[in-house]
Amino acid sequence: MPFSDSPSPVAPLPSSRLWTASTTGGVAVVIMLLLAAARPDMAAWLLVGAAIVALVTWLGSRPVDRAVTVLGPAIAAAETPAGLGDNRLLDAVFEALDDPVMIIAGGEADDIAGRRIILANRAARDLLRIPRAGSLLVSAMRDPGVLEAVDEALFGGLGRTTDYTAAGARERHWKAWVRPLEASPGGGRTAILGLRDETDVRRMELMRVDFLANASHELRTPLASLSGFIETLKGHARDDSVARDRFLDIMAAQAERMSRLVADLLSLSRIELNEHIPPSGRLDVARAASDVVDAISVLSQDKGVTVLLDVPPLEARIAGDRDEIVQVIQNLTDNAIKYSAVGGLVELSVRSDLDTEAAAAPRLPGAARLSLLTPDRDATARYVAVTVRDYGPGMAREHLPRLTERFYRVEGQKSGDRPGTGLGLAIVKHIVNRHRGGLMVESAPGEGSLLVAYFPQLDAAPAIEAAA
After folding, report:
1. Residues 337, 430: one domain?
2. Rg for the chain, CA atoms, rounded
3. Is 346 a domain residue?
4. Domain coverage including residue 156
5. Where would I find the Histidine kinase domain in this sequence (predicted)?
6. Distance CA 2, CA 87 (A)
7. Which among 468, 454, 460, 467 is positioned nearest to 349, based on CA atoms?
8. Is the residue at 307 inside a domain?
9. Going by C-beta distance under 8 Å and a sequence separation of 6 or more, which residues neighbour residue 55?
10. Is the pTM of this model over 0.70?
11. Which of 162, 197, 232 is the last residue of a domain?
């Protein structure tokens, strides 16, 4: 912090005892010297008496000196509330704040590049990736609203609050507040800039709006079908057993579709709400993939599709939520089975210890390729990649950018034997994003599709498998 760490000098304390002893001794010595001058025959004895008085005076003053020396710092500390005179405590408090806080110094009013961060706490340094002091504000935060608020505080003396959205793969919303500070002794202008995280509040608002909009739109069709069949069964088809059985089967399918839709919407909303919070669990991706293959064995057998699993000999551990990673692998494998022909083949593989380029490397010659999600750049990161390959009808290039949109289905692939809500890949993208990973797709008409989800790999240190 921009404060001196040297302790303040302790002022000498007044002492009535010290003053009395010194004065008395001095007067006595002066009187004895005058008597010695008047009576030379008594000079020797008077000088001896003066020496004794001086010695007693000095000895009497010593306890007072010691009291001043010992009690002075204690009294000075007691006069400072809670020991705040120690700037190290202020440093510790500043560093311990959860909200990012910075002290900004201004240059000339027309020199935007002159705004400099002279102090930043740990939260600010981690968020904006800036050094402890000396960074230019414009290089750390490029939001025009925040820069304008800082200028108003520096040169107008006005406090202001504005919105700030942090850049990156995971969008975060902050409320930025700026307040002017008193001028420094050198005459420079300073202001304090703080950020308050409002991501949860924004996500809750968006979740409510999106859920209502999507539910009302997607539930309209199955509800209309149910209402129509109910009216038919109550009318002329009341006594028609064949029509009644057929209508009841359709109604059951529509009700099941609505149930899946509501479940997927709730799942997607929950994932989006926590997308900015890194997961804290640990799991082996290879073991999760094996569990998924076992879970979907009934579906693959009914469809007559063979699922081949290829996992590395060593554990492929990542930091993640086991249920969410299982959901990613299951959604990708379900899609591959759904769009495979009867008797087809789906290949599921897990690879570990890959860099970013190797994890997202192309595998289908001549196929269109697109990165749907790219993690923040980190040259030292290693990844675990989950690859799902099918040999179905494939997709044209123009469909790839929209695969992770809600309710998007490739035209011509909406037949009744492929039920789905259109939310599977949207859920996959948000889960992968929460885990700081990436998502890539390759496809070509008639050649099938390949999707790769990759996640940052943990170090080789042993970890405990997260509970299922």
Report:
1. yes
2. 39
3. yes
4. 97-197
5. 214-459
6. 9
7. 454
8. yes
9. none
10. no
11. 197
Task: Name beta bridge partners: 163.
Answer: 175
In a domain, 10, yes or no: no
CA distance 340 to 443: 14
Q: Are residues 221 and 295 in the same domain?
A: no
Residue 49 above 90 pLDDT?
Answer: no
Give the Cα separation of 161 and 174 in Å (integer): 10
Query: What pLDDT, on a 0 to 100 scale, did the predictor assign at position 195?
Result: 92
Give the integer Cα–Cα distance in Å for 339 and 28: 115
Domain total of the chain = 4
Q: Quick one: which of 256, 249, 388 has its CA closest to 328?
A: 388
CA separation for the pair 242, 406 (Å, rounded)? 37
What pLDDT is stored for residue 29 in this prediction? Answer: 55
> How far is the CA of 168 from the CAs of 61, 87, 264, 282, in angstroms?
71, 36, 26, 24
Q: Are residues 31 and 116 in the same domain?
A: no
Total number of residues shown for the chain: 468
Q: What confidence tens digit (pLDDT) does each residue in 314-338 have? A: 888 999 999 999 999 999 999 899 8
Per mean pLDDT, which range of 108-117, 174-183, 399-408 is the poorest?
108-117
Residue 335, amino acid: N
Pairwise CA distance, residues 458 & 466, whole Å: 14
The token duo for 381 is 């990161």
State pLDDT tens for residues 366-378. Answer: 788 888 988 887 7
